[in-house]
Design a protein that fits this description.
about 400 residues, alpha/beta, 4-stranded parallel beta sheet, 34 strands
């Protein structure tokens, strides 16, 4: 049985065998691959997309996939030689003395090492190799936040002393954050992932952040309301914006009942890196309120169907349409085996593919390509592997 696997955060093939990888048809993008000397040749046998990094785990080393803190208690518990490969960050406790470190503990670290200044040289006794950075600190230990974390005034007020903040994931900065309080309470900031903040906060952040090599910055223009999901606006729902500026990376669909006058009085500006879908009579106004030249505006003059989840369409469903229809695919649309070319061509006026369309065979794919207006997604032929299965994204996978 063949298996298709989506993106993988950590792929561990240290104990893999030719038999254990035999059924893997493909793997998407992989953040980190761990392998041993014996299993290194197996890596070339796997059909993998992009690989962020890889590391060999020497014989005799145990894998620890987490962040750890090394203190006196931890070192005292070691009674025999211990060899660890740590897939994460290592923090040495600030009260630890150099005399407590000994060669019984040997570490290979794929993340960063946080060490008090007085131990900056002594830690080399236990660190065999560090793939990240060795960073010294003076006062308090770094505080870790994993996943999505929002930096708010309440959080800053809760800190009893200036803090070094480390975020693994997404850091969102509250629009109303007190920057003077931020200056006092955050001594240093490190983000492995992404930072979403407003334009007026950028200078303050650059003063605190150690490096931008491990994170991506998203700068939101001042005065904009952030939309975190795709929305449909009709004559009623659009009134809530009251001449607001909108910021989004998701599609916006404006329904037919929205008039030119209503649009002009409710939306001042749209900063969109995605698409805006509207009727033809609103197209010129949408271009006027769009702050980015690259924003795609999809105008329609007929019926529109927008697919945002996963849908399967049969020949009967296309026949049930009363007129040629504009299709916008923002999710996944799968065409059934019974879909006929002539019915497809008569039922679809245009198709905009932002997500994925899966077709039963190449003939249907060719017919569909004649109807495409915009394609930032993909058209794929259905896989016909006997007993095949698929897995979506996985944090850690051991083969």
């Amino acid at each position: 049985m063949s298996q298709r696997i989506g993106n993988v955060g950590l792929l561990n093939i240290v104990n893999a065998t030719p038999e254990s990888i035999k059924g893997i048809e493909s793997i998407g993008n992989v953040g980190m691959v761990l392998y041993s000397k014996d299993t290194a040749p197996l890596l070339s046998q796997l059909n993998i997309g992009n690989i962020g990094g890889s590391a060999e785990i020497p014989e005799g080393y145990s894998l620890l996939n987490s962040n750890i803190t090394i203190d006196h208690s931890y070192l005292e518990s070691i009674s025999e030689p211990t060899f660890l490969f740590i897939s994460g960050d290592v923090t040495f406790e600030k009260n630890l003395q150099g005399t407590a470190l000994n060669k019984e503990l040997q570490l290979i670290i794929s993340g960063n090492v946080f060490v008090p200044a007085h131990l900056s040289g002594a830690v080399n006794i236990v660190i065999k190799n560090c793939l990240g950075n060795i960073i010294t600190y003076e006062n308090s230990l770094p505080r870790y936040e994993n996943g999505a974390f929002t930096l708010t005034n309440s959080f800053l007020f809760s800190l009893n002393e200036p803090q070094w903040l480390v975020v693994n994931g997404l850091l969102k900065v509250e629009d109303s954050l007190d920057l003077e309080l931020f200056e006092v309470k955050i001594t240093k900031l490190e983000v492995n992932g992404k930072i979403s903040l407003y334009q007026h906060q950028e200078a303050s952040l650059h003063k605190k952040i150690t490096s931008l090599t491990a994170c991506k910055l998203e700068i939101i223009p001042n005065g904009y309301v952030v939309l975190n999901k795709s929305i449909r606006l009709n004559a009623r729902s659009i009134r809530r914006f009251k001449n607001k500026k909108l910021y989004t990376k998701k599609p916006i669909m404006i329904e037919k009942d929205v008039t030119r006058e209503l649009l002009s009085t409710t939306i001042a500006s749209i900063h969109s890196t995605s698409v805006i879908i509207c009727q033809e009579q609103l197209e010129d106004l949408i271009f006027e309120v769009s702050s980015l030249l690259e924003t795609e505006v999809l105008a329609y003059d007929q019926q529109v169907i927008m697919i945002e989840g996963d849908e399967v369409w049969s020949n009967e469903q296309f026949l049930a349409l009363t007129q040629p229809t504009n299709f916008i695919i923002n999710g996944q649309m799968r065409l059934d085996e019974d879909v006929e070319e002539t019915v497809l061509l008569e039922s679809i006026a245009t198709i905009d593919i932002l997500g994925e369309v899966i077709v039963p065979h190449k003939k249907i794919k060719g017919s569909l390509q004649n109807l495409i207006r915009v394609c930032t997604g993909s058209i794929n032929e259905a896989t016909r592997t006997d007993g095949g299965s698929s897995l979506k994204n996985i944090g850690e996978l051991c083969l």
